[in-house]
From TrEMBL:
<dbReference type="InterPro" id="IPR005545">
    <property type="entry name" value="YCII"/>
</dbReference>
<dbReference type="InterPro" id="IPR011008">
    <property type="entry name" value="Dimeric_a/b-barrel"/>
</dbReference>
<feature type="domain" description="YCII-related">
    <location>
        <begin position="3"/>
        <end position="113"/>
    </location>
</feature>
<dbReference type="Pfam" id="PF03795">
    <property type="entry name" value="YCII"/>
</dbReference>
<protein>
    <recommendedName>
        <fullName>YCII-related domain-containing protein</fullName>
    </recommendedName>
</protein>
<comment type="similarity">
    <text>Belongs to the YciI family.</text>
</comment>
């Protein structure tokens, strides 16, 4: 079994256009998705992230630390959250990613990336 990060790319512009009913459907869809992958034993963890506008980039050059407000790249899409799953194959990870409600919304995306190293509690 291999671990994969399913990265949910979100767009504030797309999210703002969704109705309250559509937003509620996404949230309940995430609950159903989590239950499904817990039942299959593929769920490891999940985390929702704050808006990219609230992030900062830290770099160190010649011993001086610089902090810049905002994400690393300015893009229409930002990382809204992620799931860590453990699947038998890349193809199964793609199938699992397709179950995430965000994957079904035009303008949003779910990226599947293999995890090469894990450390920490329950990872």
């Amino acid at each position: 079994m291999s671990k994969f990060m399913l990265i949910m790319h979100t767009s504030p512009a797309v999210m703002e256009k969704l109705s309250e009913a559509e937003l509620n459907e996404i949230m309940s869809g995430h609950g159903a998705f989590q239950e499904k992958i817990k039942e299959t034993g593929e769920f490891v963890s999940t985390h929702a992230l704050g808006d990219p506008s609230n992030s900062a980039v830290v770099s160190v050059a010649d011993g001086t630390t610089t902090v810049k407000d905002g994400p690393v790249t300015v893009s229409e899409l930002g990382i809204g959250g992620y799931y860590i799953v453990e699947c038998e194959s890349k193809d199964r990870a793609y199938e699992v990613a397709a179950l995430i409600p965000d994957a079904k919304i035009d303008g949003l995306a779910v990226e599947v990336r293999p995890i090469l190293f894990s450390a920490g509690a329950n990872l």
